[in-house]
Design brief:
The protein is of the alpha/beta class. 28% of the residues lie in helices and 17% in strands.
Length: 316
């Protein structure tokens, strides 16, 4: 039986009728810790982890995770697996990581389509980690390797792994796709797997950190109040070398005032120049951070179906 959010997402896709029965309670989900011990480089970290519920409607959650110290993956399983794993990286402007809107809500929809979903709760760059702006990337690289190792242990192919990132999570997913370098010392057998995605799906991503199209909050949390031009260039997705990167799907609303559509336009131009297969969808309206629930009844509500079709064309 489906919960309310999963059912609403499938209704938006036209895959079920609005009257289908809903589960009254959320199921319990399995979680995996990313690291076998403490996360790397935490000797100077003193923050206290916190999960905040922002929703005032008992029908749905809207949680955010702040000051994460023990990163984890939450698994949302399909009733019938299509053999493909999906790592979801929610946004939050690098100030926090969204748990539901771009994480669990999206995972339920894609699990209902057959994908075994893993929602990442990652560390934040301003919390004192030795790796600084690379602390979230350490978690993303480790997460993708953990997903592949877990998939292989369950009989799914490790090389059929999709990464879906939204907003600042789209920036983090983009770093995962573009950067070939390892950002941490291997800790166990899972690290023998690749940390490069087999396909990338980026929803209204933070791509450029350059003005006038940068999302100022993400840049500040990632690089500090006064980043150097070199730092800005080094962490702007559109200035990176994407040669050999995975096929990429981009989605953006034209009326996004938080992360301007130019972020996706600039990144798509870079991907085309690097001869990376890219598909770009732009919608007239939708704003920013719409995920699944906030786009109901609007044209952009079809986006999970567009992603599904694109992935199936690529054998995923």
């Amino acid at each position: 039986m489906l919960d309310r959010r999963q059912a609403l997402g499938l209704t938006a896709l036209g895959l079920m009728s609005p009257g289908l029965a809903l589960a009254p309670d959320e199921p319990e989900f399995e979680t995996l810790r990313l690291w076998p011990g403490d996360a790397p480089g935490g000797e100077a970290v003193t923050v206290t982890p916190e999960v905040v519920e922002r929703s005032t409607d008992p029908a749905f959650h809207d949680r955010i995770a702040k000051h994460t110290r023990d990163p984890l993956l939450t698994i949302v399983r399909p009733a019938r697996s299509n053999g493909v794993s999906m790592l979801l990286i929610p946004g939050g402007g690098y100030r926090w990581a969204v748990v539901d809107k771009e994480g669990m809500d999206c995972a339920r929809v894609f699990a209902a389509l057959g994908y075994t979903c893993y929602v990442l709760r990652y560390r934040l760059p301003a919390d004192g980690w030795a790796a600084g702006p690379d602390a979230p990337l350490q978690d993303a690289q480790r997460a993708l390797r953990r997903v592949r190792a877990h998939a292989a242990a369950e009989g799914r192919a490790a090389d059929r792994t999709v990464v879906l990132g939204a907003s600042a999570g789209g920036h983090l997913a983009g770093l995962l796709g573009a950067r070939p370098d390892d950002t941490y010392v291997p800790v166990d057998a899972a690290d023998h797997h690749s940390h490069r995605p087999d396909a990338l799906v980026l929803l209204y991503p933070v791509a450029t950190l350059t003005d006038p199209h940068a999302h100022g909050g993400s840049r500040r949390e990632l690089l500090g109040e006064y980043p150097t031009p070199g730092q800005i260039t080094a962490y702007s997705l559109e200035t990176m070398d994407w040669t050999g990167a995975a096929p990429t799907f981009l989605l953006h609303a034209m009326d996004d005032t938080a992360v301007p559509v130019e972020n996706s336009l600039m990144l798509s131009a870079t991907l085309r120049q690097a001869q990376v297969p890219v598909e770009l969808h732009l919608f007239e309206e939708g704003g920013h951070g719409f995920g699944i629930r906030l786009i109901e009844g609007r044209p952009a509500a079809v986006w999970p179906g567009l992603v599904k079709t694109w992935l199936e064309r690529r054998g995923l």
